[in-house]
Specification:
signal, mainly alpha, 33% helix, flat
């Protein structure tokens, strides 16, 4: 008996909840777009610059030089 009363109560709540939702029509604002038929191009002038690149005898010479630094704590201590 209790389950039947619970089922009827749940169905009654569901039906009343569905009956109260009102759907309103939403008006959509339209935007008019035009098609572009002409495109403008800008001329870009290239400057000839001479740049000199450094060449090292070995690969990663700058990296190995940076990694080979020594500090005061690198020195061996007398025990």
């Amino acid at each position: 008996m209790k389950t039947i009363a619970t089922l009827i109560f749940v169905l009654f709540i569901g039906v009343t909840a569905q009956a109260q939702t009102a759907t309103e029509e939403v008006k959509v604002a339209t935007i008019e777009m035009t098609i572009v038929t002409e495109t403008s191009t800008e001329e870009v002038s290239l400057e000839n610059t001479i740049e000199v690149a450094r060449l090292y005898k070995r690969d990663n010479a700058r990296v190995t030089k940076a990694l080979s630094f020594t500090t005061k704590r690198n020195k061996a201590k007398m025990a």
